[in-house]
Amino acid sequence: MTKKSMDKIMALAKRRGFVFQASEIYGGINGFWDYGPLGTLLKRNLREAWWQDVVLFPCRGALGPNGEPVRMVPLDTTIIQHPKVWEASGHVAGFSDPMVDCRESKARYRFDHLLVFAPASGDTQGKPYFAYLTDSPSEAKQKKKAEKAFGDVITIALSEVPKDAWARVLGPDAEKVGSLTEPRAFNLMFKTYVGATAGEDDVAYLRPETAQGIFVQFKNVLDTTRVKLPFGIAQTGKSFRNEVTPRNFTFRSREFEQMEIEFFCHESEAAEWYRFWRDTRMAWWQSLGLKGENLVLREHDREERAHYAKEGAGVSDVEFRFPFTDPGFGELEGIAHRTNFDLGQHQKFARTNLEFFDSDRGELLPNGSRKGEKYLPHVIEPSAGLDRGVLALLCEAYTEDPSRPSPELLRLHPRLAPVKGAVFPLVNKDGMPEISEKLHAELVRKFYRLGPIEHDVKQSIGKRYARMDEAGCPYCFTVDGETASAQTVTVRDRDTGAQERIGIDRVAEFLAQKLEQS
RNA sequence: GCGGGAGUAGCUCAAUUGGUAGAGCGUCAGCCUUCCAAGCUGAAUGUCGUGGGUUCGAGCCCCAUCUCCCGCUCCA
User: What dotted CATH number matches A6-83+193-349+378-396?
Assistant: First the structure.
């Protein structure tokens, strides 16, 4: 298979109205993207597919490891939460890695990554400290200089250099000492102010993940829905991260949409639920057409895991091979056993008991009921990127077939296709447009909930097919010379170009069947 | 943040030593057209990414800035 060109995919995305640069007429704004008409439909269809298969019909009826149907309830929480939420979650601390800038080389380093060569004796005698980064060219270079200055050298962290000696630190890529700035917090959360007065007491943050809203409302959901553990809470919504380097089209954006499940269970069952969700989520992406070697499930090493998941049963990523990551992969969804870290943190910070009383556990009592057990549930989190999903689908669906008169097409799954069908008269005369308009009106009435049905009478039939190919429309119905007498139309398949004749009264049935085959 | 490359019509790209901005495709209208971007006629669309500067004159030269792509870095 020839490697797909990201440039061509981006050109198509722009040309056909899938993705636009945000604020484009003002020169764009780094890390933000808008969806055009077709992109909006595609994104909505993917979100809707997730909603159907997670919330409305969880796992499409598959039983969980406990042998029961999977329980799931929906939630919709705010983008701006109480600032304490982010202290409890660790985002305020974790997001503010102090950074050090070099005034001379303009390089920026993580403060806790910077090491210095210092004399073994401890006294530099007015000579510089030689700062470096491990495994960077600066290491050998600085070591050589340090050894020349001091003889025996030792390594210490930059943070251990006394503040009054800061001016004698030679930056890793600098020629003169004293070029490094004080370490500065570099918060990846977007900051805003609540209330019109906008004082420092009114600081709030745009959420960097939707998950915390779920944890914070965990108790309310329990108290109002009669759900029992194990069960999940599902939410879709925007999140914001002030990324250092937005990159790769929409892949790393500063504003993005997540589709998250927080699945709550007893600690003893966490490992099997983790495996269940990992495999279920992988299969879900496959069911939408991301198949074969472009999609992998990758288990993280323990060292790779986030702070909240270090002790858990595991973390996996569903990863897709994008043209810009090839031969590597980029993350679509992370499935993590977050242990009971988050609920524990909120319990502590909010001073609220978030334990669940499980009446199905504990010793069996003489009357046949159980004593019950109170515990802080563990959480399995399948967290998917909606925008990344859309991008992966576009990349996977994009096909160039030079043997076709219109070489570019999007082989999108019918369930996800932004346009569900199109009706054309073969030519714009002989009564054909009247028949096609009628058929089109009928299909619109029947399918508007799923997506638009197009009708086009202009230009040649080939051009109209080509337009639908680029929009990813799976089926075109053409009224031709036989239609009036035989009451049949042709159906043209997007992926093969093959045609068959079906009765005009069977078109809706045909399309419904094709769209439901998923 | 560093290094490299690039910004001209919706898309892909031209424009000689600095001299009033073009093509193909697409779009729209009309004709034509009986199954795959066909043909004919016509039309619309650009502050040449943005802001300064040099010059009689700047798409082109200079400075700044923004955005995109690639490689590092980052991705809790």
Answer: 3.30.930.10
Q: Which residues contact A6 (CB under 8 A, 6 or more apart)?
A: A249, A322, A323, A324, A395
- The tens digit of pLDDT for each residue in A25-74 reads 888 899 999 999 999 999 999 999 999 999 999 999 999 999 999 999 99
Q: In this predicted structure, what is the pLDDT of residue A92? A: 79
Q: Which residues of chain A between 90 and 109 are close to nucleic strand B, CB under 7 A?
A: 90-91, 94-95, 97, 105-108
pLDDT of residue A130: 86
Q: What is the pTM of this model?
A: 0.87
Helices marked H in A208-304: 211-216, 218-225, 270-287
Query: Rounded distance, CA A409 to CA A468, Å?
Result: 8
Q: Which residues 480-509 of A interface with strand B at a CB distance below 7 A? A: 480-481, 489-490, 492, 497-499
* ipTM, interface predicted TM-score of the complex: 0.92
The confidence score (pLDDT) of residue A326 equals 84
* Domain residue spans of chain A: 6-83+193-349+378-396, 96-186, 406-517
> Was domain A406-517 assigned CATH 3.40.50.800?
yes
Torsion angle of the four alpha carbons A235, A240, A243, A246, in this order, in degrees rounded to the nearest 10: 80
- Tell me the mean pLDDT in the region A204-216: 95
Q: Which nucleotide is nearest to A211 (CA to C1')?
A: B76
* Across all strands, nucleotide nearest A91 (CA–C1'): B76
